Structures are given as C-alpha cells and as structure tokens.
Amino acid sequence: MARPVIAIVGRPNVGKSTIFNRIIGDRLAIVEDKPGITRDRIYGTGEWNGVNFSVIDTGGIELEGDDSLLRSVRAQAELAIEEADVIVFMVDAKAGVTNADEEVAQMLFRSKKPIVLAVNKVDNLLRMDDIYEFYSLGFGEPVPLSGSHGMGIGDLLDAAVNKLPEKEDQVYNDDIIKVALIGRPNVGKSSLVNAILGEERVIVSDVAGTTRDAIDTPFEKDGQKYVLIDTAGMRKRGKVYETTEKYSVMRAMKAIERADVVLVVINGEEGIIEQDKHIAGYAHENGKAAIFVVNKWDVVEKSDKTMQHFTNTIRDHFLFMSYAPVVFLSALTKHRLTKLFPVVNHVAEQHALRVPTNVLNDIISDAIAINPPPTDKGRRLRINYVTQVAVKPPTLLIFVNDPELMHFSYERYLENKIRAAFAFEGTPLRLFTRKKSDQE
After folding, report:
1. Quick one: 141 and 182 in the same domain?
2. Going residue by residue through the chain (440 aa), what tens digit of pLDDT does each one get?
3. Are 74 and 195 within one domain?
4. What CATH number is given to the structural domain containing 217?
5. Are residues 365 and 344 in the same domain?
6. Mind spelling out the 3-state secondary structure of the chain?
7. pTM of the model
8. Fewest CB atoms less than 10 Å from the CB: which of 18, 136, 139, 221?
C-alpha cells in the first residue's frame, strides 16, 4: 500500500528543512541559515505511532517576483501541495505573521487540504506568547516547536498523523500480478503499455513527460491476471523545475510501493545514464521484484555480441541489482515482446518464494563448512540457525551469538550461497542478524 504524504511548506527560511531532517532522522536536506537553500522537493519517509508516511520538503514559497528561480520554487511547492494528504504550514515565531505568510495561507486555503500550522523557532518559554498572533491565519491552534532543539516534533507529528485521511488504495486479489513501469521521461513506458495491451490505452507523445499520473490498467494474458501501473517519467532534479511538467516522482514512488514487479525501462538507443541508476534504486530500496527492460532495441545497430555487451554494461552500472534479469524489446515494432511476461511471471514467483527452514539451514551448514565464519579479536561468529520470516521480498532472520561479529562480506557470501541454491532471480533478499536468546 502506498504511504500517505505529508508536505512541509512555507515561505523561505522558516526552518522547513531542519524539521524535515528531524522527522526522517537524517540530514538529507541541506540546512543553512540563508533564504532559498532548498531549491526543489526532497523526499523522505517517516514513522509515528505505527503510521508510515512519506515527507516532502519544499523550497520556500515566494509569491512575489517573476525570475525563473522563484517560479521554479513556486511550481515545486504547488506540486508538493497537490500530492500531499496533509500539509504542514511552517511559520517563524521570531518574525511573526508576515505578508508572505498570509499569501501562502491563501494559497493553502485554495488547496482544500488538511493543514497543520507549525510555529517554528519557539526556542524557549518566553517565546510561547508569540504563537498566539498566528491564530489570525485561520488554521486553528498552532503547534509550537523548535527545530534547532528538537522540541515539539512529537506534537507536530501527532497533529499531522491525526489529520491523515483514511483512504485505501485499489485492492487487487493476491493472484493478480501488479506491474509498475518506471523510468526517466521518453524511454517509451506508455508505448510499452500500449504494445502489451494491443490498443491505445495511454496517451503516447514524443514530448518527454506526457504521462502526468499513474494509470492502472487491468488485463489478462494466457490465463494470468495483471494490473499495469504506468507512471510519469522521473527526471533528474535539475529538470524537475519545468512548470509544464505535471508529473511527480512521488507518484512514481507510490506506484512502486503498490507493485509486485517493477519494470525499469531503459532507452536502448541512448544507453544508460546516471538517472537510470537512481530510478532503479527506488525499486531496490522498496524490496520489489525488478526487470531491466531495454526498449527501442529496433533502432540499435547490432551484431551478435551487442545484446551481451549491453547486458554487461547494465551489470557494471547496477551492481546492487545483479539479481534482476534483462529483457530486450521494441514497443514500437513489438519485436521480442513475447519474451517479457514469462520473465514477469517468473520473478513474481521468486519474489513470493518461501523456503522451508530445514532446507534453508542445510544450505547454511554447507556454506559454513566450506567457508567458516570470521573471527574478531579472538571471538568467532557462530550461526545457530536461519529462518525465513517474510516474502515479497524474501526476508531471512539469522540467529547468531553476536550480531556485531557478522561482517557484511560474510553476509554477502551467505546471500550468494542462498541464491545459488534457490535462485531468487529478480528479487532482492533481505537478511537480518539477531542475537539468539536463551529462550530461543
């Protein structure tokens, strides 16, 4: 299920990025005491009282001025507001209510979204009296907080989570394979959907970024039911500003979260660029089954070694996704299109594969016999047993004498041995190490 979205908006330099970093527990957003540092939307994830959500940090909204940077920041904030389920409207206790705050408030009223008014920089009790003037903005009781001291973050999250709507994604039966297509603009995702369906279900254009939202299209093929989720093209941050581009990385992220299998579509004519790696990383980090689909293969000059060379290039660029198979095709001519869905079915099956504990431990025992666990300062790692605790993705729990003795290289060795035995093609594996208690 896709996570709900909380957007943090407000005029420049009210402390949005500091609060964003407090919520996600990381310093992902650049923080500097200078207006306009955050230029585009930055995405993160958070959790509060069992509720998982996505957070968007936005550039400060400046409604006056027509230079290109201000227009870009304003457009980014508008898109964030459009995507959000709840909006945290951040203001500055030290500055009081400004004309810019009132203009942003009018913009937020028009959005008709749930709003939490957060008054930042309430760094001591003497500033508590400063929050009352913000009632004039019309959003009810303000939440006082201090980003620099970390005070009031819990109250803010309580208010934001309580306003999240109880909405549910479209629910499909477990036997239906949900397939999301992701990739940078103009790699041919919509054309691929149309080729699969055999009809013009999705608008196709030569203009990058034509698809504006995720579109669900159910269909059946050879007795198997699927849902195709076509997403807006994801463009690198430097290009995200374009106001004509009404697509959203967040929508693509939601599509990935809802999918069983993710098709990472690459333009075979242009080859691999850095942004392809970032896009594929979203699928990997979300634990989804994945396939690299090299589109526009019809226009690539080929020899008998071209396909292998391109596959090797993918392996070199996507070392973190060595498990993902590669399919070459042309959405335009439908050449090799029949190769795609047998692979989709296979990786979906692998993504949901569950291995019996006794069989799994036999493989681990053999791996230990071949390559014993390492020692650290005279202490040797001892693996007691392994069990699979989840699927989609397959998730294994390794019980050991001391988790700190598990070096990442040995964990990778165990993963390789497990993959050699059970394949798990097309799916990431999640391995977690836990100390075996006396009761277990």
Report:
1. no
2. 567 888 888 888 888 888 888 888 765 444 444 443 333 446 677 888 888 888 887 766 665 655 655 565 566 567 667 778 899 998 999 889 988 888 888 888 888 899 999 999 998 877 788 888 999 999 999 999 988 888 899 999 999 999 988 766 567 788 899 999 988 777 888 889 889 888 555 444 444 443 444 567 888 888 899 988 866 544 444 444 333 233 346 666 778 888 999 999 999 988 888 778 877 888 898 899 999 999 999 999 888 899 999 999 999 999 999 999 999 999 999 999 999 999 999 999 999 999 999 999 999 999 999 999 988 888 999 999 999 999 999 999 999 999 999 998 999 999 999 999 998 999 999 999 999 765 45
3. no
4. 3.40.50.300
5. no
6. CCCCEEEEECCCCCCHHHHHHHHHCCCCCCCCCCCCCCCCCEEEEEEECCEEEEEEECCCCCCCCCCHHHHHHHHHHHHHHHHCCEEEEEEECCCCCCHHHHHHHHHHHHHCCCEEEEEECCCCHHHHHHHHHHHHHCCCCCEECECCCCECHHHHHHHHHHCCCCCCCCCCCCCCEEEEEECCCCCCHHHHHHHHHCCCCCCCCCCCCCCCCCEEEEEEECCEEEEEEECCCCCCHHHHCCCCCCCCHHHHHHHHHHCCEEEEEEECCCCCCHHHHHHHHHHHHCCCEEEEEEECHHHCCCCCCHHHHHHHHHHHHCHHHCCCCEEECCCCCCCCHHHHHHHHHHHHHHHCCCCCHHHHHHHHHHHHHHCCCCEECCEECCEEEEEEEECCCCEEEEEECCHHHCCHHHHHHHHHHHHHHHCCCCCCCEEEEEECCCCC
7. 0.68
8. 136
